[in-house]
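Subject: complex prediction, re-run

Hi both,

The earlier run crashed halfway through, so I resubmitted it with identical inputs.
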Amino acid sequence: MGYTIQGFKASAVAAGLKKGGALDLALLYSEKEATAAGVFTTNLVKAAPVLLSREHIRDGKARAIVANAGNANACTGPQGMRDAQKTAELVSRRLGIHPEEVLVASTGVIGEPLDMNLITNAVVPLVESLQSSGLEDAAKAIMTTDSFPKTARFAGAAGGRPYEIVGMAKGAGMIMPNMATMLSFILTDISIDAHLLQNALQEGVEKTFNRTSVDGDTSTNDTVFALANGVAGNGPLSQEDRMEFARGLTRVMDDLARMIARDGEGATKFVTLELRGAASADDALQGARTVANSALVKTALYGRDPNWGRIMAALGRAGISMEESAMDIWIDDVQIVKGGLGCGKEAEEMAAKRMENDAFVIIIDMHVGIFAEKIYTCDLSHEYVSINADYRT
Amino acid sequence: MGYTIQGFKASAVAAGLKKGGALDLALLYSEKEATAAGVFTTNLVKAAPVLLSREHIRDGKARAIVANAGNANACTGPQGMRDAQKTAELVSRRLGIHPEEVLVASTGVIGEPLDMNLITNAVVPLVESLQSSGLEDAAKAIMTTDSFPKTARFAGAAGGRPYEIVGMAKGAGMIMPNMATMLSFILTDISIDAHLLQNALQEGVEKTFNRTSVDGDTSTNDTVFALANGVAGNGPLSQEDRMEFARGLTRVMDDLARMIARDGEGATKFVTLELRGAASADDALQGARTVANSALVKTALYGRDPNWGRIMAALGRAGISMEESAMDIWIDDVQIVKGGLGCGKEAEEMAAKRMENDAFVIIIDMHVGIFAEKIYTCDLSHEYVSINADYRT
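This time it finished cleanly. Structure:
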């Protein structure tokens, strides 16, 4: 990312888990003990590294994150747990820290045992290549079907002392609110207690990653970690400091979430879906998600077709309050539905023009209440089908 | 269909609603007053013909069904209602019956006004070409992206008098339980009262069309009609007669539902998904639907990839009771998951062989209860994307 952050080092190696010799094992390391927070998948099927890291982070402290792509270590039973533990042990021994200080994350194919020989052989070079400029490579190593590494940064000040927040993420497929198939690791040099960090992380995840949808599938491995090493040297945080930090953390995750949607598997369009005028907060979210996950809406986005009938039909089956004759819909600045009826061919042609852009906004005003939601999503393309029909072959 | 049924006539013409001069307007006519039952979409956005037909069928009687493809007459406001009414009036006048005896159904693009000149001009030839052998053409006329007309037949006897049930359907896209984007019209010569017919129809729809999923989208126009003209001359139905009729009706709808899944937009695989061992009936249905609608599962089916990790992940996010270590999964006769773990490369290779067939069964045993469900579904292919990205252009 070009980004560095004081007190942290990172590295990545090609352990051989991905085909073709790409970077596939990443290490993030805090030179001193760091406050740690984590948010994990809500899927009942949780990968071994998720189960292990949930234990390791319970005390609010960590020193390292080791993450591999190429194999999810999910649906691998007791052997998978042993492999995740062994990964933490190998890394901790080499770093001279406790295994419980190591957080583990994996992404890739589900249901295949992790090749521990590859991990074992890679740990020495992985630790030896740790450097402050290693974050870019680490962001590359956690990619699966991602087409570019995703990093973001925020700079703030607390009690007069400047601090930074630097984050990375991988996304691309199995992406759906609650949470996306995604890993995200966030590093900051602020001094903050674990409880505040956890709260800020959870709130930020809810507003960002949990408002991102590529295909409506939720992964077994979703993990967001935040480590705060306190090197910035600020004292206890004032109320205002906390709010600024929470905003900054959310900003970093929002940037990453937008990149995840933009880089959705096979995506050709980045679409921000704004649903307004819903009867309740739940209705707003449910409605926005139903539209964003509709295969028919997503293929119309791909075809640059302002097919508002599919949006109306998706909302009509979303299980929310709706009045057909109250609906208004816009593509960017072009209104295509007014009072539940189409605005005509000319409006649709203008809207289709807007949809030729890489990114646009769909605004839906239901006019039955005051609640609003925003979802980042993308289209469903031939390429999505190709990627996912051939993923394991 | 080659099928005929005594006391009914049918016809179809090319009114010009579809591009390219294909049949697009169908008429089914009962020579005498028939008992009538109907089941309609649960989508809150209901097309005009749905709203109108719901009124016309309230008295349990009907004489005719007029159905067009090419335009859904949905999201068309008061003008759409007037157009649906006018369609019923034109047909009724020509047939010499009351407008309330005509049921109307439409399928096609949402949000565009119906071209009533085309309908008006087509009604005379439509009524004039009514004939007992017209059912096949009618089944063709209601097709949209369907690749073949769908018809089915059952022969039974009540009180010693033989009767028949003949059905037709269109499906292809926007297909999801509750209900599919589908029209289905069922004709029978049994004598049965409207209440019994309605109950049998609803139960059958629940077990068949509502267990069919192509893409998880529910249409604004879904309609199933059943007309019973009583020409078979049976007396009051015994308990046993009723049960046989319900079974026969369900059988006809089951045949049609299977054809709809087999002919899903772009489908290359017809997949029967059997979920067993769920903790409750709701869990069984929710679990089966979540797997059947997962874009990642569907693309794996297209790729003939027994990627059971995606099935596990879909169940894990379905919001149902699940124990990862209790899961068993088969493709046809090949077990690929036992106790939550993969059965190895050899099993997967055998399963991949089975998936080269046009049709196969996925059996999932969750082993947490005694409830089971079955869903008919299909894969998600490049062709699905092509069809739906270009549908209106």
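Chain B has a mean pLDDT of 91.

- K.
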